[in-house]
Design brief:
The protein has 412 residues and is of the alpha/beta class. It has helices at residues 23-33, 55-64, 78-90, 106-118, 134-141, 161-166, 190-203, 265-277, 283-286, 289-294, 299-303, 308-321, 351-362, 388-409; strands spanning 39-40, 101-105, 124-129, 145-152, 158-159, 172-178, 206-210, 234-240, 252-259, 326-327, 336-337, 340-341, 364-365, 367-368, 380-383. Helix content is 37%, strand content 16%. Strand 3, helix 5 (134-141) and strand 4 form a beta-alpha-beta unit. Helix 4 packs parallel to helix 5 (134-141) and helix 4 packs across helix 8 (265-277).
């Protein structure tokens, strides 16, 4: 009998994880197929919760479908890049021309591209912990080594500059900044951004700024693009339509190269090669960009005190922090909360097993904190996108599960 060898995945994927869509989500899908209704608090997929792209954006895409059959320029449509250039000007990012803008199939594709174009085996990139896990995965897949700097929960989840500095080695090439932050919902003050720029300047690091939530802001806070604060450091800034414009499925994102470009021309040429290799990003989604950036900013209504997102944030925070042993820094931005479980009341050793038990017991799906490269099994991420009734139901189920858990495992 012939022995057929197993076909194995690439060794490059050995250390690559993306637990937001990992094995627990696979179990949730199986449970749904078996007839169970799962309340999903795991992914910021806005359309699933009734947050649709503005109608004028939809109509623009529909109107331009007859013009969308062919490839566009590999960097993107002229009108879309022009609109992004104007947006960069509004954000006070200086010196941005059309050739400095790359449109991709969402910011996610461009994050992977930016790492593939930069890293050689052994190069290191500073990535926050907790992080949006695509950043760690993209660094690893490109042959680099992610080194996680800690964000301090006691300081409203702001990065610790001393910890950042301590993680820098001769192999460090860049630092990643997620601002506003996913999963914590923190927004960084200008003073901290200036400190990060000084670290980058001193150590000749590229700053990769993920700003996909820069309009999802609460309580009157404002957002500053770090690239607007200096021109002697190389910045690569990422944004897109997914969150601000509730258009996740359009897969329309962009990256902007700014700052000290003269000394980075070879890297920029590499990005152009990678952009050309995938021919172009999807054209229908690109037709949404100009209308989105130049039209009525309906996100402002949603994040206002009377808006649905703000009210759901407040409700989720109130319900979660009312549970014994649960604390949370109230997010000032984005769509998530990252609550902490008291380790004495909830002695969790494997947080993926913990959330799997929550799923199977209460039919609620969240993501474990270690899925965001947080080092301790004492956090989980909650999406507050479901309507108020579903939030009350879901967090009520979480509270019931936690009561059972602390009675069974916690210190008496």
């Amino acid at each position: 009998m012939e022995i057929v060898p197993l076909i194995l995945k690439s060794t490059k994927l050995t250390s690559v994880c993306y637990d937001i869509r990992g094995p627990v989500m696979a179990r949730a899908k199986q449970m749904e197929e078996d007839g169970h209704r799962i309340i999903k608090l795991n992914i910021g997929n806005l359309a699933s919760f009734g947050f649709d792209a503005p109608e004028e954006i939809q109509q623009d895409v529909i109107h331009n479908l007859p013009n969308s059959s062919g490839y566009s320029d590999s960097k993107g449509l002229f009108a879309a890049r022009k609109a992004i250039m104007h947006y960069a000007q509004q954000k006070n990012i200086a010196g941005v021309g059309l050739e400095d803008i790359f449109i991709g199939n969402g910011a996610s594709e461009l994050i992977v591209m930016s790492m593939q174009g930069l890293l050689n085996t052994g190069d290191e990139v500073l990535v926050p912990a907790p992080d949006y896990p695509l950043w760690t995965a993209a660094v690893t897949l490109a042959g680099g080594t992610p080194r996680h700097y800690l964000c301090d929960e006691q300081a409203d989840w702001l990065p610790d500059i001393a910890d950042i500095s301590s993680k820098i080695t001769p192999n460090t090439r860049a630092i990643v900044l997620i601002n506003p932050n996913n999963p914590t919902g923190t927004i960084y003050p200008d003073s901290l951004l200036q400190e990060i720029i000084e670290v980058a300047r001193k150590n000749r690091l590229i700053v990769f700024a993920d700003e996909i939530y820069d309009k999802v802001l609460y309580d009157g806070v404002s957002h500053t693009s770090i690239a607007s604060l200096a021109d002697d450091v190389l910045f690569v800034t990422f944004n897109g339509l997914s969150k601000n414009y509730r258009a996740c499925g359009y897969r329309a994102g962009w990256m902007i190269v700014s700052g000290r470009k003269k000394h980075a021309q070879d890297y920029i040429d590499g990005l152009s090669i990678l952009a050309s290799m995938r021919l172009c990003s999807n054209v229908p989604g690109q037709f949404a960009i100009q209308t989105a950036l130049g039209g009525y900013q309906s996100i402002n209504d949603l994040v206002a005190p009377s808006g649905r997102l703000c009210k759901q944030r407040d409700l989720a925070y109130q319900l979660l922090t009312a549970i014994p042993g649960v604390t949370c820094v109230k997010p000032k931005a984005a769509l998530y909360m990252f609550p902490r479980l008291d380790s004495k009341m909830y002695p969790i050793h494997d947080d993926q097993k913990f959330i799997l038990e929550l799923l199977e017991t209460e039919k609620v799906l969240v993501v474990q904190g270690t899925g965001f490269n947080w080092p301790n099994p004492d956090h989980f991420r909650v999406v507050f996108l479901p309507n108020a009734d579903d939030l009350v139901e879901a967090i009520g189920r979480i509270a019931r599960f936690l009561e059972y858990y602390r009675k069974r495992y916690g210190q008496k």
